[in-house]
TrEMBL record:
UniProt name for this protein: Pirin family protein
Annotated binding of Fe cation, by residue: 78, 80, 122, 124
InterPro entries given in the database record: Pirin, Pirin_C_dom, Pirin_N_dom, RmlC-like_jellyroll, RmlC_Cupin_sf
The entry's keywords: Iron, Metal-binding
Family affiliation: Belongs to the pirin family.
Annotated cofactor note: Binds 1 Fe cation per subunit.
Species: Streptomyces arboris
Top-level taxonomy: Bacteria, Bacillati, Actinomycetota, Actinomycetes, Kitasatosporales
Length: 321
């Protein structure tokens, strides 16, 4: 998924200086951003106060939207660099096309994982015909310096491992949780998991004290470490936790995001993650010239133009503003 904000501003992220080393309960509120013709997303990362959770650098939550009489998701071809995109659905389908020639429909609870490496472009759209409802999350993972120029590739996994407890199913999307490991390729110590809780369930999810964590609420009503979280909000939890108390006030869907704090400082602008402003400028110029990022075939429409660069130099700084 692209950042379609035409007033795109750079995000300076990473570095361990702003990692909260102890458990906290910091509720993040989303910013509403239009996505294409008929979809609006709630953007949780980057946030006004917090830019990253581990290597997770971008989180959009959308839906559930009734798109029975709408085109649904229509994101034209656009570039990515220095990151992985994670597509995760609770309802609906998304048709992925990319400049490698991949053509894949991603369905609920299936992992669509695209590693951009040095350069890739892709489009995303609701198929024709499509399901009535569209509900999901789109997330980006920053690639560490030693892997950020890997060859681009796309993975689609339909059989993901799960950790279970009474009233709780935790499907491991990326990384590892309580000994269950996702088949998706990860380049940093990380975890992403989809949590399904039945009404009235109470559980304690095992965590790695060296990771920092956040929980995104997808649906229903739940308490995370005693804090109520409503759909479209995200609770940042800091580090130093061996377990996480969960309680469902209704049937609820959550996403657990965590990882080892990302040590490197990065610059994120539009759909690019880099280490310097000069790299961002070069990537934008390459996209505008039609070089480096390849071509997406089969999408019915023009590709996205890049937004204008800011007038001030782009420099990497810390994890929070």
């Amino acid at each position: 998924m692209s950042n379609l904000d035409r007033q795109a501003t750079p995000s300076v992220c990473g570095g361990r200086g702003f990692v909260v080393a102890e458990p906290v309960r910091e509720l993040l509120t989303p910013r509403r951003v239009p996505l294409g013709e008929s979809t609006e997303v709630r953007r949780l990362l980057p946030n006004l106060g917090r830019r990253m959770v581990g290597a997770w650098a971008f989180v959009d939550h959308y839906g559930p939207d009734d798109i029975a009489d709408e085109p649904g998701m229509q994101v034209p071809p656009h570039p990515h660099m220095g990151l992985q995109t994670v597509s995760w659905l609770h309802d609906g389908e998304v048709l992925h096309r990319d400049s490698l020639g991949s053509l894949q429909t991603v369905r609920p609870r299936e992992l669509g994982l695209m590693t951009s490496g040095r350069a890739i472009s892709h489009s995303e759209e609701s198929p024709k015909p499509h399901a009535r409802f569209l509900h999901g999350a789109q997330l980006w993972v920053a690639l560490p310096d030693e892997h950020r120029n890997v060859e681009p590739h796309f993975q689609h996994h339909t059989d993901l491992p799960a950790v279970t407890a009474p009233g709780l199913t935790a499907t491991v999307i990326l990384g590892e949780l309580d000994g269950a490991a996702s088949p998706g390729t990860a380049y940093t110590p990380i975890v992403g998991a989809d949590l399904t809780l039945t009404e009235g369930a109470e559980a304690r999810l095992p965590l790695d004290p060296d990771f920092e964590y956040a929980v995104l609420s997808m649906s229903g009503e739940a308490e995370v470490d005693g804090v109520p979280v409503l759909p479209g909000s995200m609770l940042y939890l800091g580090c130093g936790r061996a377990e996480l108390p969960l309680r469902a006030l209704s049937g609820a869907g959550l996403m657990l995001l965590g990882g080892e704090p990302f040590e490197e400082e990065i610059v994120m602008f539009w759909n690019f993650i880099a280490r310097s402003g000069e790299e961002i400028v070069q990537a934008r110029n390459d996209w505008e010239k039609g070089s480096r990022f390849g071509e997406v075939h089969g999408y019915d429409g023009a590709r996205l133009p890049a937004p204008s660069l800011p007038t001030t130099p782009l420099k990497p700084r810390g994890r929070v503003r």
